[in-house]
Amino acid sequence: MGWKVTHGVSLLQGEILVKTRSHRTAGGQVIAQLYLPMARSHLWQQLTDYPRWVSYFPDMVCSQIRPAPVELDPRIQHLYQVARKQFLCFAVQVEIYLTVREQTDQAGEQQIWFTMEQGDFLDFAAQLTLQDWQGGTLLTYRVQATPTIPVPTLLLQQAMQFELPANLRVMRQVLCGRSLNFR
C-alpha cells in the first residue's frame, strides 16, 4: 500500500486516507487507512466484539453473532448485520449474512475477513487489518461490494469516498474516546 510511508504525518494528524475504484461492472471498492493511538491488542478485543459494531457505524442498526453450523474453527464466526441509510427522499435497508474469519500472522499483524454468505448485494467482501505503527495502530479497511439495485458506479464510488471516512471517524472516537485532538 505504501501510504503510511508517504502520508505518515497526515495519518498521525488524524487524516483518513481513502482510495476508490470500480469493482466488476456495477460495484465499487474502497481502501481506507487511519491511525489509532492505542495498542493493537486493546483494539483487537474491541473490534472482534461484533455486536458493538452498531456503535462504530451510525447507519448499522443490527450486528448479531449467529449460531454457527457445526464449526470446528474457533476463529470463524457468523454474523447478521442490518444497515439503514436515508438518501434524499428514499430510505434503503440492507441485510447481510457474513462469515467472519480472524487471524494473526507471524509478524503480529491481525486481520478480520468478512465474506458474504447471502444478503442484499450481488457480492460483498471486506478485510480489516491492524498493524503496530508509530506507537499505536494502523487500521486498514478494504471493502468491495456490488449492490443488487442498479447504481451508477461513479455515484457508488463517491458515496464510498465520503461515507467510509465519516464512519471511520466515528469508529475512532468510540474506540479511543472523544478526547482525541485530531482535526
Describe the fold and architecture.
- The chain is an alpha+beta fold.
- It has a single domain, classed as Alpha-D-Glucose-1,6-Bisphosphate, Chain A, domain 4, CATH 3.30.530.20.
- Helix content is 25%, strand content 47%.
- It has five helices and eight strands.
- The chain has helices spanning 3-6, 8-12, 40-47, 53-56, 153-176, and strands at residues 17-23, 27-36, 60-66, 76-87, 90-104, 110-119, 121-133, 136-147.
- The protein has an eight-stranded antiparallel beta sheet.
- The chain is globular.
- The two termini are 24 Å apart.
Keywords:
183 residues, alpha+beta, Alpha-D-Glucose-1,6-Bisphosphate, Chain A, domain 4, 5 helices, 25% helix, START-like_dom_sf, Cyclase
State the CATH topology.
Answer: Alpha-D-Glucose-1,6-Bisphosphate, Chain A, domain 4
- Any idea what the CATH superfamily is called? START domain
User: How are the strands ordered across the major sheet?
Assistant: 1-2-8-7-6-5-4-3
Architecture per CATH nomenclature, i.e. the level-2 architecture: 2-Layer Sandwich
Structural class comes to: alpha+beta
Runs with pLDDT <50, length 5+? none
Organism: Neosynechococcus sphagnicola sy1
Protein name: Cyclase
InterPro entries: START-like_dom_sf (IPR023393)
Task: Summarize the topology.
Layout: H1 3-6, H2 8-12, E1 17-23, E2 27-36, H3 40-47, H4 53-56, E3 60-66, E4 76-87, E5 90-104, E6 110-119, E7 121-133, E8 136-147, H5 153-176
Antiparallel strand pairs: 1-2, 2-8, 3-4, 4-5, 5-6, 6-7, 7-8
